[in-house]
Amino acid sequence: MIPSQRDSIITQLLAHKGVVTVAEICTQCNCSPETARRDLRRLEKEGELIRTHGGAKIAEPNQSQWQPNGASLLEARIALTERVDALVVTPSHTRATDLLVDRCRIAGVPVIAEAINYAGARTVVGTDNYRAGFEAGQWVADYARQHFGGKAIVLDVTYPQANTKARSRGFAEGLRELSTEQVKLLHVNGQGLRESARQIAADAMAVHPDINVIFGVNDDSALGALDAYRAAGLDEEQLLVVCFGLEGDAARDILDSAIPYTVSVAMFPELVGRACVDAAVCTYHGCTLVGQIATPYAIVTPETLHDFYERDAHTGAWEINLPRAERLPTASAGFTLLRQCHNRSKPRRIGYVGVFGAHEWYQNLQATMQHYSRDLGISLEIIDVSQDVAREIDAFKQDIGFTATRFVNDGDTIILDAGYTTAYVARALRGKQSLTVITSSLLALAELEDELNINVVVSGGEVQWKIHSLTGPGAEATFLELRVDKAFVSVTGLTESFGLSGTNIPETTVKQAMIKAAREVFVLADSTKIGMESLVKIAPIDVVDRLITDAGINPHDHLALTQQDIEVIIAEQKAR
Fold first, then answer.
1. 416: burial class by Cβ within 10 Å (0-12, 13-18, 19+)?
2. Which of 82, 171, 197, 285 is 20 to 30 A from 442, alpha carbon to alpha carbon?
C-alpha cells in the first residue's frame, strides 16, 4: 500500500474516533509498526495530527495544516469554483464543503450529489437505499424460514448517515415478514470502518452469542463483524452475512467462497461513477435532470456472483459485466437517459470532492470517474476532504464542551464522565472558582492538573488506557456515595425508545452511578450520535434534563426530544 493510501486510512480513523493507535494502523494498512510510526512522524511534521504515546490524535483546527503552500485550505476550496465546469460531491457535509457548494451555486457551476443530497444540487446519483434494504430484508426473512426455523437474531452494523440509515430502516421493514417473536434486531454503530466494526461486534457477540445474521451497511461493517464472529469461535454454518455494497474484491472473495453463506446488495460503484460523470456532462448543457437518479442494484448470492463479476485471468481482480449490470430493472428511467449529451461538446474540467478514501467503494468510484472522464476527454480534479471531516467532528466536540460550561456556576460540585467531549468541558472550566469536579476521566484530570481553584476528585477503579477512563466496582462505588449538582455524561447513542446507550460495557455501570448521583443530568452528544442505538443501554431517555448537541441534529429528533421535556441546547460555535 502506497503512503497516500495509508494517509487516507489514518485520516479516516481520526475522523471517526479522534484518536488512532499504531496497532489499528497496522491492522487497517497491513503494515509494520515501524512503517506506521514513520507515517505518524511525517504527518505530525505536516501539521495533520499530534502524536501520542502509542498513536496519534487530531491536531487542533487552528494549527498550520490550515495553511497549505501559503494559502488557506478554504481559499483553495473556493478557487476550485473558478476552474471547473461542474462539481460532483460525495457525502462530506462539513462547513468547508457546504461553503464550496454555495460558491458553486452562486457562480453558476452545477453540482451533482453522490448518495446524499446537498442543498442546491441539480440531482442525487445513487442506489435507492431504502428499496434495496427492504428487498434484502425480505430475502433474509425467506432464508431464515428455510435454514434457521424462521428465527433471526440480527446484528445490524450501521452508521449515522442518511443513506446508511435508509438501508437499515428498509432492511428492518423487509424482515417484518417474520413474526416479531422470531426476530431480534440489535443496532450498533460500526463507524463504517472494518476495525471499529470488529470491536463493537465483539462486544455484541459476547452478550448475544446466538446472533445468526450479520447485516452491514457497507462491506467494511459486515466484514469487521465477521472477523469478530470468527475470533469468538462461533459456528459459521449457523451464520448468514449480508453485505451492502459489494464494493471491492474483499467482499467478492467472501461471497465467492460461500463460507459462511453470504448475500450482498451490489451497488456497482463502476456504474455510479460513470453516472456521476454523465450527469455532470448533462448539467453542463443545462439539461433538466430529475431530483434523484437511481442507479442499478442487485441481490447477489454465491450462485449469481459470476453473472455480474468475473476474475481477470492475469491480475486476479474482479471485473464487472457492465452490459448485464446496466440492464437491471432496479435503475430509474433517469439513469437510462444520462448519455443523451455524449454527442455534444463536453465540459473541460469536472471537480470531485471525495471523502472516506479508506473505503473500497470510494476508491473504486474515484478510479471509475478518472478512467471514464479521460475516455471522454474531460479532466477530473480531485479534492480529498477527509481532513475537513476529522477537524469538524473535533470542532463539534469543542463547541459542545465550551457550551456546557455556561451551566457551571462557581461553587458547584459536578461530575465529568470520560470521553473527548468531557475533556473539552474540563479545558473550558479553567479559571472557574471554587468548583469541585469529580471524574473518572484521565483526560479531564490532565486538563485540570494546574487549576488551584478547582478541587479535583478522581474516582477509584481500574485504568482503561484505551478509553482514558477508570472503570469497575471501585469507580462505580465512588459515585454511588455522592450527591452532586450536575453530571455531564457522554454517550454514543441516544433515541427516544432505547434511551442512552454506549459501546463499552465496563463503563455502563459507572455512567449509571453518575446519573443517579446528580440532581441535574446533562448529556453531551454530537448530532451523529442522536437517533442511534449503541450496544448497551445506560438509562431511559427520561433521566435527561438537558442535551447539548450541534446544529446538525435532525429536526424530527429535536422535536421528539423536546416533547419528552428535554431541553435541547445547540452548541455555540467557539471562536478559533
1. buried
2. 197
